[in-house]
Amino acid sequence: MNKTAPIPAHKKPHRWGLITFFLFCVGLFVLGLFALQNRVMIAQWGLSKVATKFDFPDARFTLSRLEKDGLNITNIWLGPDLRIASLKVNYSLLDLMSAKLALVEIKGVDVDITHLDKGAVGKIQKLTQNQPNSPSPATNIPNISLENVTLHGELDNTKLNITLDGHIKPDRSLKLTSRGNISYPLADRFISIKNMLVHVEAAADLSNIKVSLENTLFLDEAPKPWFKPLTITGTGFYSDLATAFTASIQNKTKTFSTTVTGRGNIKPPHLSAKINLSDITFAKDGLQPKDLFPSLQTLPPINTSLKAEIDLSLFRQSPTIKARITSNATNITHQNTNFTMEQAQAFMVWPKGDIQISIPEAFISHDSRKMALNALNATVKIKPNNQDFPFSISNLTLSDTATPALFTPVQINAKGELYEDKVTFKTTAKLLTGLSFIQADGMHDLKAGKGYVNLETPSLTFSKSGLKPSDFTPFLDIFQETHGTVTGKSYITWTPTKLKTNGRLRLSGLSLATDTLSVKGINTDLKLSSLWPPKTQKIQTIHIDEISSGVSLENAQLSFALKGPTLWINEFKAGFLGGNISLQDIPLNPNAQTHHLKLKLNKLDLEQLFKLIELDGLAGTGKMTGALPITLSNDDIMLKDGLLVSDGPGVLQFRSSKAKQALAGAGEQVELLLNVLNNFHYDRLSLSLDREFSHDARVGLHIEGHNPDVMAGRAFNLNINLEGNVDRLLAIVLEGYRLSDRAIRASLK
Hints:
Among the domains are: 141 residues, no CATH class; 137 residues, no CATH class. 14% of the residues lie in helices and 57% in strands. It has 8 helices and 40 strands. It has a 38-stranded mixed sheet that branches. Strand 30 and strand 31 form a beta hairpin. It is rod-shaped.
């Protein structure tokens, strides 16, 4: 019987090894199958561990897809400041082996940039800053798609809400679109960019960049905005660290449109640009500054052309703006006032500089009078994030172009401040010699169009070798010598429809002298209810020690009122020839061709009167009273039916040896007359005076009485025509008229 051979002992370990390997493979298969079936859960667990390692322990997300060609992660929450709706990554095994990704698609990103150094955004910044140098980004950038990426919050006091969409290619070329709003805060307002739409296109490696801006709104959101909304559309280019751009700016109604062009250079951390603003034309029946700037609603219509050149510099996020604005052929008309200038320039440095305004020459015309402004240099201080603007005007020369000029050239200096809608100011007016003669302070409300100014003239002392009235106005060059002190004050208020003025003038010991008239010791405190035209509500009084023009008036007193252009003399009285002289209720209107007045003479000394009117050889005693009806016209006088009558009896003596010799042999009647007049005791004596324009006066002497030494004192009634110089009596009236007329005309010019 045959027996089966036994199995060799050394074959058993090999069998168990095969079994073990088989079971291991089955385990690997089962494990791989488990991992494949649960790959998303495992990957999400692993990503959570990675997030925790990088200090995002509270990160939340959903890995919704994990395949060999890519993955999707949704609802990513890294913190309250960073959320991502969807992240899609496409790749291949070959890409992964080369550390590349085919596509990264990011949608629905919400980033709060208010605190870049905190939260999730701050952590990401720290991670990127702590990473070692990596290969060049150009070799690792995949195709990146961005959709609805929103950046919002407050950064460096600027509020942003911007949404980005676009695509970035591995060669770093890109196309991006940005929409949103930006608001920059000032002290009392936000300057905002709204409805912003920006398109950005860049070639490979960002070598050439094009930026397009479409219908973006630029506005001031304050309740009282500085400017009205503007729409900006433009295109800019960047290449080799250089930029160029063109933009069109319009207002909402499209009545304003201008083009802005510029070029610049970018050399981090410095950016510079030159910007040119094309001509902006304002016309009376077209565009006006108030259409752009609401605060200028009260500005009268203006005709001008403006252009601007701007230098922009940005260094480490600190901007500097230098702007030069030029206006040409400017004309502004308001009621009867017109302002014109050929050219003006304004130079501004922001934020730490000033606005320098330069006007070589300008003209102001009111009614028919034209005044010149020369060398106007003004400075406006700029205070960033502040709403007040201090300003100053230095050495402005104001002159009258008329011949003769109303006033001599005046130099004006001023300081003030623009705060909200109000301008406050202080001004000093000086003669070109340096003497300050007006100090003013005031306010103007730009919105309401109303304001006020206080004017004060400090004490001005006149002297023969010092200050003279003609230093202020050529109209007062008639005064050859002046002494005394003048002070004045005035207050002026205005609204868009009304101007109110009042003033006060004090004269202390003022003396004036012309070539034909001397006035000494003028003292008065005049109160004017209106300066232009000059008016008074109450009767004003002037006291004068002496008035001399061939004859002397003493202790004169003038009571008057100003009613429009008319000087109404209520009463003028003065001591004259031992008696007094007076005028009452006389209107002097500078627009009238002739003036009529009645000069009253009271108790004049007869002998002094005869000497005054040069009645040669006549002497006498007694007092004369009467009136002279006078007509004044064109610096000439007509006297008609003037009559002076003696107040009582007196003595008349005619002792002219020259006349007696001339009349010798003329007959018995003439000889009798000469004897009677040698010692004539009159009961009544009268003088009649008449004068036509540009003719000599006629003097008639009428006497009733007797000579006790002739014909036993027989009574005589005599009428005698005499030749005399009545002009000496009338001269003081004419000089007073000339002086008053010139003063009134000067005040109305």
